[in-house]
Amino acid sequence: MTDTNTPALQPRILHLGFGAFARAHMMVYLQDLRDAGGDWGVIACRLNSGVEGLDALEAAGLEYDVLATDDTGTQTRRITTLAGTLHPARDGIDAVLARIADPSLAIISLTITEKGYALREGRLDCDHTAIRADLADPDHPCSAIGVIVAGLAARRAAGHGGLSVLSCDNLPHNGTLARRAVLDFAEMRDADLAAWIERNVSFPATMVDRIVPALDDAALDLIAATTGRADRESIVTEPFRQWVIQDNFAAGRPDWARAGAQLVPDVAPYEEMKLRMLNGAHSFLACVGQLSGYRTVADCMEDTVLRQATFRLMLDEQARTLKPVDGIDLEDYARRLIERFSNSRLHHRTAQIATDSSAKLPQRLVAPAADHVVAGRHWPVTGLAIAGWMQLVRHTVTQGNDLSDPMRDVLADIVARTQDGAEFIDAMLQLREVFPADLAANPRFAIPIHDAYQALLQGGPGLILSNLPEPA
């Protein structure tokens, strides 16, 4: 419990999408400040599912544990920075909007995943079901973007100042994307409101890094053994954490630098490094690892050939597309990533990482491949990762298993109407949400994907990985 001399929490942050990552990342930084006498508190809000978890947090006194574990042991941290919870199904949407309109609120933080921004080719997708519904009835929104704009409208109407919308999602230029989605929605609702948001609301970019697997039986057993409680709102994660934040806040912020975050003017070099080297490697393992029969990332690292290919992807392919990042040796960064991936205490499932892949691949693998095409370099591991995704899609659909992806129906249709092989690959390359038209039409991109896919059909990933050409 918090010491009685610690000041009372002030609910200055509303977090939308209070999932596992938020509980294991931002809340730990805030806990560091809380332990030093800070008073920044968080209202946790989920908009769709998850009301039961919020009820459980309320019943537990708004406290839970974060267990950081690796092969050397486990450290437990009690989190006491929650100041309340909100869910429209339980509390009503007006309660959520009133919280945004509260003059004490300084930050709306987000972990709503790629899907939550409802973007299509960099702009708000007006055909998105939830966005269309919110535009028709903006005072009773159901999407995260609709909720933010409705809350800001209420804030403006009350005569209060602006605040910051802080995206903590694993997206390149996440601040810019959040700003674009909010402003596009506001423009369609009320041009004057959009102008007010542009003047008064800031959208800092962030780079977040901490591996947080989905909770499984082994994690629940560890939580119960360590804390004495079978608590599904507690989290098992890795010891490593990193947070790089653009220092651009409209209504103040916690002293996150004191808790170890990096406050910088430009997050882009850090996010590109992480998205391509860490997340790109994760997507490679999610697809090729599953095709190789491995359930977790740590299982993949036990395979020497797959481990070496992952390191090669990071250093010989992804790192070569990056601009230098101050103070970071990319070879050392890659070696540390391999160590983190090898953590056998984290059951980070390849199937979990593979969810929503159509939204992840463009920045993690397709954009680096495009850089290689322009530079005339070879990119065999990247090509295998992209082809592996295509084969995993086809395998999942044909086996009758659920495909967890925002383009599930489109992908299932492609599988149903094409023959496996070249016809299927050509149809997949027509997905503009994943592959830009000029890149997909370029033989220097399309042919390596075709070749990698055919090689997968003929010999599987193990044979390809054992016979990779030397880096050019």
- At the third CATH level, what is the topology name of the largest domain? Rossmann fold
**The top level CATH class name of the largest domain:** Alpha Beta
Strand content: 5-15%
Low-confidence stretches: none
Helical content, roughly? 40-55%
The CATH superfamily label of the largest domain reads NAD(P)-binding Rossmann-like Domain
Rg over alpha carbons: 22 Å
Word description of this protein:
This protein has two domains: 10-264, Rossmann fold; 268-466, N-(1-d-carboxylethyl)-l-norvaline Dehydrogenase, domain 2. It is built from 22 helices and 13 strands. Helix 5 crosses helix 8. A hairpin with a 2-residue loop joins strand 7 (119-120) and strand 8. It is globular and about 65 Å long. The model has no long low-confidence stretch (mean pLDDT 95). It is an alpha/beta fold. Helix content is 51%, strand content 12%. The longest helix has 24 residues, at 268-291. Strands 5-2-1-6-9 form a five-stranded parallel β-sheet, with helices on both faces. The protein has a three-stranded mixed β-sheet with strand order 4-3-11, with helices on both faces.
Describe the secondary-structure layout:
Layout: E1 10-16, H1 20-24, H2 26-35, E2 40-45, H3 51-59, E3 64-70, E4 73-79, E5 82-86, H4 88-91, H5 93-101, E6 107-110, H6 113-116, E7 119-120, E8 123-124, H7 129-136, H8 144-157, E9 164-167, H9 174-189, H10 191-200, E10 206-209, H11 217-227, E11 235-237, E12 242-246, E13 262-264, H12 268-291, H13 297-301, H14 304-318, H15 330-341, H16 350-353, H17 357-375, H18 380-398, H19 408-417, H20 422-428, H21 437-440, H22 443-466
Parallel strand pairs: 1-2, 1-6, 2-5, 3-11, 6-9, 12-13
Antiparallel strand pairs: 3-4, 7-8, 10-12
Helix pairs in contact: 5-8, 8-9, 9-10, 12-14, 12-17, 12-18, 14-15, 17-18, 18-19, 18-22
